[in-house]
TrEMBL record:
Topology of the protein relative to the lipid bilayer: Multi-pass membrane protein
InterPro entries attached to this UniProt entry: AA_ABC_transptr_permease_3TM, ArtM/GltK/GlnP/TcyL/YhdX-like, Ectoine_EhuD, MetI-like, MetI-like_sf
ABC transmembrane type-1 domain boundaries: 14-205
Regions crossing the membrane: 20-39, 51-75, 81-100, 187-208
Protein name: Ectoine/hydroxyectoine ABC transporter permease subunit EhuD
Signal peptide: none
Claim: Cell membrane is one of the keywords in the record: yes
Database matches in Pfam families: BPD_transp_1 (PF00528)
């Protein structure tokens, strides 16, 4: 049932594909975290712009990620915007999870007492200084665990990129299986990789959460 020689042979091939998976995860989450913060800030600063952002967030959250990947890769070229498969896939993942992250940030902002804003105005602090030095340090620590959950969820969504021919880890395992008619080893190794990386990510999130709690708690 299990061929160790075959397992050793395919490990380097899967390792190279794992690099693509990690890259897609890292870039996608950076996009999601930063764009989510921007969207939440816009909703906080202007009721009119906030309404537009709220509609966009609900639109993104209410449609499947796979449809969004197809839209960026197949539909945008019709209007002259051509993206390679990796870029389109990572951008779709980042935009999709930015909608979720924005709601997490918004909850963090709403958790900051209103008196903090009023005190900043009384001290004649600029909006940027208030946001950067007063509000953000109080809003971020409570939402880090939720953002960490989305990081892990985003990581496990990367196999969807195979739908537009990005040869990430799961796609490479399927290719190996179709060529050798052996699926047990490659699929098991992929499952173990996702398990280990998810546990490591969860551990790093807990460390970051503890550090932020000690620094700003």
């Amino acid at each position: 049932m299990w061929d160790w020689a075959f397992t050793i042979d395919i490990l380097p091939v899967l390792a190279r594909a794992a690099v693509i998976t990690v890259q897609a995860t890292a870039i996608g989450f950076v996009i999601a975290a930063l764009l989510g913060l921007v969207l939440a800030s816009i909703r906080l600063s202007s009721p009119a712009a906030g309404l537009v952002v709220a509609i966009l967030v609900e639109l993104v959250r209410s449609t499947p990620l796979l449809i969004q990947i197809f839209f960026l890769f197949f539909v945008l070229p019709k209007v002259g915007i051509v993206l390679d498969a990796f870029t389109a896939g990572v951008l779709a993942i980042g935009l999709h999870y930015a909608a979720y992250c924005s709601e997490v940030y918004r909850a963090g902002f709403e958790n900051v007492p209103r008196g903090q804003w009023e005190a900043s105005i009384a001290l004649n602090l600029s909006p940027w200084t208030t946001f950067k030095d007063i509000i953000l340090p109080q809003a971020l620590p409570p939402v880090v665990p939720a953002l960490g959950n989305y990081l892990i969820a985003l990581f496990k969504e990367t196999p969807l990129l195979s739908a537009i021919a990005v040869v990430e880890l799961m796609q490479r395992a399927k290719i190996i299986g179709s060529e050798t008619f052996r699926y047990t080893e490659p699929v098991t190794l992929v499952g173990l990789f996702f398990l280990v990386m998810s546990l490591l990510s969860a551990g790093l999130v807990r460390v970051l959460d503890g550090w932020l709690s000690r620094r700003y708690g």
